[in-house]
């Protein structure tokens, strides 16, 4: 019954589909919060080298990648669960810990995979109204009861870009009863430059019911290879690893992710590109009198104050793919991924034309 009530995840429109449907060429896509720089050249070289061994199964325990992650984060490898993207980790949490009689709490306008993994195990999704487009932690805390098993928190949140400060988030985690797991989804961690933004991996030793999810899909530029990971107490990681498919992360992805971790300069370049691009977009929104939600991620939501579907269509006709987010309960907004300077410029030019003509 839960599955029948599900709406499928709606990915961004592929460039090829747009070009065929609308007869445009040279389209650009600012719709899936990818890294416009691509991956580190070191990650690419490692991926290419790994092709020599694709007749072998990957290391099902991801020994090398886990060792590198453990070193980077100052944790034991036993605290890590590797996923086929961090979505895999979110799904393991629901599959391993949540029964149909349980409740899973998350915020309105939060990441679309939370309702999917919750309803897929037939549990009840408890959706808490957002506060200023972000998580209302007090209301989320008040919703916890004996049936609650899992709380998802995206920090920063996709699609709104809102973020939670260390003190408020830690107070929330500390207040959770022992039967409730808190999954803090930090897919955009590397992009956040706010001083009070927490690294919750550092808290997992202290809170046995905390799981932090991270990914190589965003700042590391490896979305197509699908690698993410969870960090938790060894006891929780042991449970998550039991529901994991034996070879869920492929060998090319393992090699690329391990090499990507070492290239901190590439991540720094991605963050700088994002900072500059975000400035470019905000300047344009301000000039055009468009309201936006300040974002800590590599994307930003702009408010058209009327259904944005027509705006989305008009942008498509000019060869620019962005993301409609009506399915997130935000029909008047579009979410724009920060691109390269030239891509941002093309988007802004298209937007300016449409806004002026309307
Ligand atoms: N969490 C959030 C908040 C996201 O926005 C995304 C990507 N859209 C993910 C998790 C999943 O990313 P991946 O599975 O590629 O690691």
UniProtKB/TrEMBL annotation:
Its cofactor is pyridoxal 5'-phosphate. Its EC number is 2.6.1.9. It is an enzyme of class 2 (transferase). It catalyses: L-histidinol phosphate + 2-oxoglutarate = 3-(imidazol-4-yl)-2-oxopropyl phosphate + L-glutamate. SUPFAM superfamilies: PLP-dependent transferases. One of its GO terms (biological process) is L-histidine biosynthetic process. The keyword Transferase applies. Residues 27-351 form the Aminotransferase class I/classII large domain. The keyword Transferase applies. Belongs to the class-II pyridoxal-phosphate-dependent aminotransferase family. Histidinol-phosphate aminotransferase subfamily. This is Histidinol-phosphate aminotransferase. It comes from Sulfuricaulis limicola. The lineage of its organism: Bacteria, Pseudomonadati, Pseudomonadota, Gammaproteobacteria, Acidiferrobacterales.
């Amino acid at each position: 019954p839960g599955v029948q009530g599900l709406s499928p995840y709606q990915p961004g429109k592929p460039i090829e589909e747009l070009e065929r449907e609308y007869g445009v060429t040279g389209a650009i896509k600012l719709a899936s919060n990818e890294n416009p720089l691509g991956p580190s050249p070191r990650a690419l070289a490692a991926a290419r080298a790994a092709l020599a061994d694709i007749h072998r199964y990957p290391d099902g325990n991801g020994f090398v990648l886990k060792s590198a992650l453990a070193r980077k984060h100052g944790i034991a490898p036993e605290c890590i669960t590797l996923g086929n993207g961090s979505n895999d980790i979110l799904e393991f949490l629901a599959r391993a810990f949540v029964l149909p009689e349980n409740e899973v709490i998350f915020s309105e306008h939060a990441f679309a995979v939370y309702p999917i993994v919750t309803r897929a195990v037939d549990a009840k999704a408890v959706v808490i109204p957002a506060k200023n487009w972000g998580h209302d932690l007090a209301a989320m805390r008040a919703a916890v009861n004996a049936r609650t098993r899992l709380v998802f928190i995206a920090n920063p949140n996709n699609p709104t870009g809102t973020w939670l400060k260390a003190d408020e988030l830690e107070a929330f985690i500390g207040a959770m009863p022992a039967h409730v797991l808190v999954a803090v989804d930090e897919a955009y961690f590397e992009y956040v430059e706010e001083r009070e933004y927490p690294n919750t991996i550092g808290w997992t030793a202290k809170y046995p019911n905390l799981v932090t999810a991270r990914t190589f899909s965003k700042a590391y530029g490896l979305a197509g290879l699908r690698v993410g990971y969870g960090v938790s107490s060894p006891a929780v990681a042991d449970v998550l690893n039991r529901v994991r498919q034996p070879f869920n992360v492929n060998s090319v992805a393992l090699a690329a992710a391990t090499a990507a971790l070492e290239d901190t300069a590439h991540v720094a370049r991605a963050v700088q590109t994002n900072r500059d691009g975000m400035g470019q977009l905000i300047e344009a929104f301000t000039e055009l009198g468009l309201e936006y939600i300040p974002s800590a991620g590599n994307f930003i939501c702009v408010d058209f104050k009327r259904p944005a579907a027509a705006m989305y269509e008009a942008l498509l006709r000019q060869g620019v793919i962005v993301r409609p987010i009506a399915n997130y309960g935000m029909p008047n907004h579009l979410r724009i991924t920060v691109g390269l300077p030239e891509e941002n410029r093309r988007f802004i030019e298209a937007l300016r034309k449409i806004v002026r003509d309307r």
